[in-house]
Amino acid sequence: MSAWLHRLAVVLLVLVATGCSGDTSPEPDPTPSPTATTSASVSPTAAAVPRPVKDGCHRMTLEQAVAPVIGGTDIACSRKHTSQTYKIGRLSLLESGHLVAVDSPSVQSAVASSCTSLLGAHVGGTREDLRLSMVQAVWFTPSVEEAAAGADWFRCDVVALGRPGRLAPLPRSSKGLVGSSDAFAMCATASPDAVSHRRVPCSAQHTWVAVASVDLTGKAYPSASAAGDQMGSPCRAAARGRAADPLDFTWSEERPTKDQWDAGQRYGICWAPA
Predict the structure, then answer these.
(1) In the chain, beta strands by DSSP E
(2) Which of 2, 87, 189, 241 counts the highest number of beta carbons within 10 A?
(3) SS3 95
(4) How far apart are CA 140 and CA 262, in angstroms?
(5) Phi and psi for 111 in degrees, rounded to 5?
(6) Residue of 81, 68, 72 lying closest to 115 (CA atoms)
(7) Per-residue three-class SS string for 237-274
(8) How far is CA 108 from its chain centroid?
(9) 168: which residues sit within 8 A by CB, 6+ positions away?
(10) Of 168, 202, 198, nearest in space to 182 by CA
(11) Which residues pair with 271 in a beta bridge?
């Protein structure tokens, strides 16, 4: 998968989670560009952007958050902001002794892996807490021209999905965001099979809540029936465990879309009425 296709797959995960697109509609904002396999020639006017500041806060839109290069406005964390940096790393642009471009698949994959693997330690909580939250990692690298001019960093930010198509404002510090509060837990405006289903933070008005995740086995994308066979029992148990009457309750199962599966989400979500 090319760096841009990988990026679009992650974008799609974000947009499906907020309910502002269909199951297979890609993010319309970025225009895919060719993937370079060797370093770009240095432009005589290229200037490396300053190395970002760890723990810096930023005001940005959803479209800016899922773009490959930095956008938005740096802002004091005491003011309203929608992302916060939790990691500044150094890019490795050498493969087998050869220089590769910053937008090559291997470089982008390494950045994505670093940022997603470090998110849990920053926001706290368990893996399940993070899966059942609206909190996600986004990451940025220099442009090809900036990297050719010497920029060698990548930046990991934490964001929280809010209303469909929008990022939610973050607290002054995002450290422990998931482990210390359920304000950004995942809820919905309706059951997953309803046309009006939209994921929202549990701090917003909602009627359903995500109660469990279920790992799905197998290498191929599961059919609805196959996913239901794996998810039925654990989803039923999770719903029963929170019901006032253990003999009278309901639940719903939501398997990942094909795009989410291809982008790496190998689990489904169990839902129950709030």
Answers:
(1) 57-59, 73-75, 83-90, 94-95, 98-99, 135-140, 153-160, 186-188, 199-201, 208-215, 252-254, 267-273
(2) 87
(3) strand
(4) 21
(5) -65, -45
(6) 68
(7) HHHHHHCCCCCCCCCEEECCCHHHHHCCCCEEEEEEEC
(8) 15
(9) 82, 134, 160, 161, 162, 184, 201
(10) 202
(11) 210, 252
Better pLDDT: 26 or 76: 76
**Cα 26 to Cα 245: distance, rounded to the nearest angstrom:** 42
| 134-184: pLDDT as tens digits | 999 999 999 999 998 889 999 999 999 998 899 999 999 999 999 999 999
Q: Could you tell me if 91 and 102 are in contact, meaning their C-beta atoms sit under 8 angstroms apart?
A: yes
- Which residue from 157, 143, 43 is spatially nearest to 101, judged by alpha carbons? 143
Helices 3-18 and 105-123, packing angle to 10 deg: 40
Provide the 3-class DSSP secondary structure of residue 104: coil
Q: Is the pTM value of this prediction over 0.85?
A: no
With residue 105 as reference, give the H or E element that holds it.
helix 105-123
Phi-psi map region of 218: left, alpha, beta (phi>0 left; psi -120 to 50 alpha): left
CA 157, 162, 166, 169 dihedral sign is negative
Q: What is the pLDDT of residues 32-55, one digit of tens each?
A: 333 333 333 344 444 566 788 888
